[in-house]
Amino acid sequence: MGRRVELSAEKQEEADKLFKKEAFNIVASDMIALNRSVSDNRDPQCSRVSYPKVMPNASVVIIFHNEAWSPLLRTVHSVVNRSPPEYLHEVILLDDFSDRAGLGEKLDGYIKDTWPDGIVKVVRAPERQGLIRARVLGAKAATGEVLVFLDSHCECNVQWLEPLVARIKESRSALLCPMIDVIDAKAMSYNGIGAGSVGGFWWSLHFSWRPLPQRERKRRKSSVETIRSPTMAGGLFAADRKYFFEIGGYDPGMDVWGGENLEISFRVWMCGGTLEFVPCSRVGHIFRSSHPYTFPGNKDTHGLNSKRLAEVWMDGYKRLFYHHRRDLLVINPQFNADAGDFSDRLQLRRDLKCKSFKWYLENVYPEKFIPDENVIAYGMVRNPSSNLCLDTLSKDEKMVFNLGLYGCQGGVSSNQLFSLSQSNELRREESCMDSVGGEGSPVKLMPCHGSRGHQEWTYNLETKVIVHSSGKCLDKVEEKNGGEVKVEKCNGKDSQIWEFENYIGP
Ligand code: LR7
Ligand code: MN
């Protein structure tokens, strides 16, 4: 039923050793039945939904490169066992040029013996494709009406397929994601997550989860209705097969891993489709903290793929990506910043008459903070007497931490870019400067709450002081790199003087 695996001390030691290679607990996985059940963790309303008799059938495409045996086969078993035969046209296992023992003849043999009806097919790439081109190869081999893509370490929950194909029957231009449950990489337990999140992104073009926006809560009439999401995580989704190719499949210039998830998300919205999460369809996925495979040429494929996507889809907003990746801005062979030719993708965008990225931001993701638009000030925040600037010191901005100071970098370090928002927040993309207001207490960066209070700061253009809602002034603690900032009684001294790189005004 998806419960955690308990290991003896001896097995645990072996598991720890192998964890480095696989990035998940292979020993535990090998102990669980390949066709284990998982608990039905759907919203109770889901089991009361009735689906039409006639619905499109699906080809489930599972791509893999050197995946471990047990998670790979558990994925296939869960698809076959928990999909009604009338809607499961085929399962395509797309082998992206694996060279791991067991994934050749042994796999073919197992599949022939286990599913003699031929419902599961293996297609092998003639050379390493990377996950993006591998998915396209799988999709090209498929003949079902709907494509469903899965990673090779998933477990489908009960009735996962019906709500996907039912929604595509209603709306052929919808890309649909199941709710992604978590299969714990250490204990291999199947853990349901809520249905309270949608996809977002960081301007560095990494995917993020976000709370379900208010307008989406209002729009939906029941908990089983699909949820519109600005982006998707990437690996698990369904689409009408013909529609998938009509809107351009994937960018074949993208290598190995990364970027394609945001690319297809922006594209589907901008080119007239929708992206929706389907609450009654749940699929578990093993979240691994590293990539257990090689990146040929040691390229930063996430960076280069993201550069392609920024250049093709983000119009002027690509500047916000390059703030994080100045190294990708100029083609410098030394830094390997050449993302190749993407004129075909620009042509696709023209052919499909897609809308602008500004339209996407305004209509699909209006909550997204744009650091340099509709703000009072933007850029470095400098203390002139010391030439120190506010700086995140590269800390993880999903965490709460004390804000620091560092020698001003002339705008080249994204760590020093801050915005003074219209609602008087001194902020980064997601986090705000926060002070409890006690004299001398350090100023922290923490998630913006949007209700002023401890996160409200006003700038006085004449006196150049930044005044906190407590009436105290932003002050530096120590005049050194890595020093912190605090609030202190306003005293007009040099340590309380701040200049914004770009002051636009309220
Ligand atoms: O060269 C490769 N060839 C492949 O066939 C590299 C990988 N792959 C296969 C691999 O075996 C796996 O089945 O591609 C699949 C995805 O690779 P993962 O599992 O290493 O990726 P991930 O789960 O870490 O990453 C997420 O983001 C990726 C961005 O490129 C892909 O879109 C993944 O599919 C995606 N996974 C999910 O969305 C699952 C849910 C995660 C969340 C949130
Ligand atoms: Mn994965």
TrEMBL record:
**An example Gene Ontology CC term for this record:** Golgi membrane
Its lineage reads: Eukaryota, Metazoa, Spiralia, Lophotrochozoa, Annelida
UniProt xrefs under InterPro entries = GalNAc-T, Glyco_trans_2-like, Nucleotide-diphossugar_trans, Ricin_B-like_lectins, Ricin_B_lectin
- Named cofactor requirement(s): Mn(2+)
- Name of the protein: Polypeptide N-acetylgalactosaminyltransferase
**Pathway(s) it belongs to:** Protein modification; protein glycosylation
SUPFAM superfamilies reported for this sequence = Nucleotide-diphospho-sugar transferases (SSF53448), Ricin B-like lectins (SSF50370)
Enzyme Commission (EC) number: 2.4.1.-
Q: Taking every annotated instance into account, which residue ranges of this chain make up the domain Ricin B lectin?
A: 377-501
Q: How does it sit in the membrane?
A: Single-pass type II membrane protein
Subcellular locations according to the entry: Golgi apparatus membrane
Specify the superkingdom: Eukaryota
- Main subcellular location: Golgi
Q: Which Pfam families match?
A: Glycos_transf_2, Ricin_B_lectin
The keyword Metal-binding belongs to this UniProt entry's keyword annotation: yes
Q: Which residues form a coiled coil?
A: none
Q: Which GO terms describe its biological process?
A: protein O-linked glycosylation
Q: Which UniProt keywords apply?
A: Disulfide bond, Glycosyltransferase, Golgi apparatus, Lectin, Manganese, Membrane, Metal-binding, Signal-anchor, Transferase, Transmembrane, Transmembrane helix
Entry's Gene3D superfamilies?
Answer: 2.80.10.50, Spore Coat Polysaccharide Biosynthesis Protein SpsA, Chain A (3.90.550.10)
Family under the similarity heading: Belongs to the glycosyltransferase 2 family. GalNAc-T subfamily.
| GO MF | carbohydrate binding; metal ion binding; polypeptide N-acetylgalactosaminyltransferase activity
Tell me the PANTHER family matching this sequence: N-ACETYLGALACTOSAMINYLTRANSFERASE, POLYPEPTIDE N-ACETYLGALACTOSAMINYLTRANSFERASE 1
